Amino acid sequence: MCLVNQIFTEEHSLRIDERACKKICLQKRRRMPAARSPDSFSAMETAPTPKEGPVRSTPEVTSFTDSERRSGFIASTKESAAVGDEDFNDLFRRAQDAIHAGTQPELIPEGSSGSYFVRDIAGQRIAVFKPKDEEPFAPLNPKWPKFFQRVMCFCCFGRACLIPNSGYLSETGASVIDQRLELNVVPKTRVVKLASPAFFYERRVCCCSYEGAARLRPKEGSFQTFVTGYEPADHVIARWQYDPTLLSEEEKRRFVYLFQKMIALDYIIRNTDRHMDNWLIRHIPGQTLELAAIDNGLAFPVKHPEVASRLRRFPFKWSALVWAEMQWDPTLRAHLLAKMTPHFVHSICKEIKNLFRHDIGANRLLVNNQLRVMRGQNF
Predict the structure, then answer these.
(1) What's the alpha-carbon Rg for the chain, to the nearest Å?
(2) Residue 344 burial (C-beta neighbours within 10 Å; 0-12, 13-18, 19+)
(3) Rounded to an integer, what distance in angstroms lies between the CA atom of residue 68 and that of residue 97?
(4) Calpha distance 260→172 (Å, rounded)
(5) 3-state SS, residue 54
(6) Once rounded to an integer, what is the mean pLDDT over residues 83-106?
(7) Which terminus of the chain is more exposed, N or C, with fewer CB under 10 A?
(8) Closest CA relative to residue 362, chosen from 155, 128, 78, 170
(9) pLDDT digits (tens, 9 = 90+) for 174-228
């Protein structure tokens, strides 16, 4: 009975807040001049009455200024955001132009968080955007299973060895380490701010946007380059097992080389969620063989996963494959040994530390613990 009264009280207060918000928005709208400058805000479309929970809003996205178009990404370990990332900045501008032209991102139905395929003006997928406030246990996650888990099964909330709602930084950190080690198996990822009516916003933001008194605020999240022509690893490996002649001897050596690159990356960042669906293979027999390690948001633990829980283990799923038992490629081994010097490990830990401190709410103690685990994995 107390629970019913509590729900009724919260629902009644929400309705009062909606009415007060609409009243304020109408008062602000009456004070606005009749002639509106096109540079001030975009024309607003008629939006439906807000409903319970996170809802989609339909007003047009805020137009981007010239400085925002030049900025590219907002969080990087580099002092100059433009050094070596011109291709990424061009891709990000294409995404901004497409959203402003009305080509909105589309929600990815798979997964446990709010992640989106970002498209260009022609409708082609060019990136994957994962907002911070739509991560698995974030308040605006559009996927209802995690919502019920957070509310009803709070004892099984997330992973004890990871910092909640920091997957967007983990995605970027994996890309930075991949770039520094010259592995080239992770699509380039950076932290950006992006606004779109396709994203999920709070009730009060949707209400204000409905009345035209406010524009959608940009969301912060990871922006990863979309790879074209790749398939999940289990699909490709199943074809290879059915017809071994699809792989030539040279392609077998090439795959072992790429596979061991991914092993090195997962071991350094201590990825706790590497399964057969989040690493991709592109194989055209006799022409191309490439590998892409995506979805690195559950890495960089604050304590080693093997001691974090006695009931749950986080093994690497690739460890059961036959390629995991092969000897290391001599070229890759020499490359990694030459790279992994104490000075290099210190410099890369400094970069990751600067990246993780981008989050205002980051705890210094937890960030230092993440770096300790990473140093231990390196050595």
Answers:
(1) 23
(2) middle
(3) 12
(4) 21
(5) coil
(6) 91
(7) N
(8) 170
(9) 999 999 999 999 999 999 999 999 999 886 555 444 444 347 889 999 999 999 9
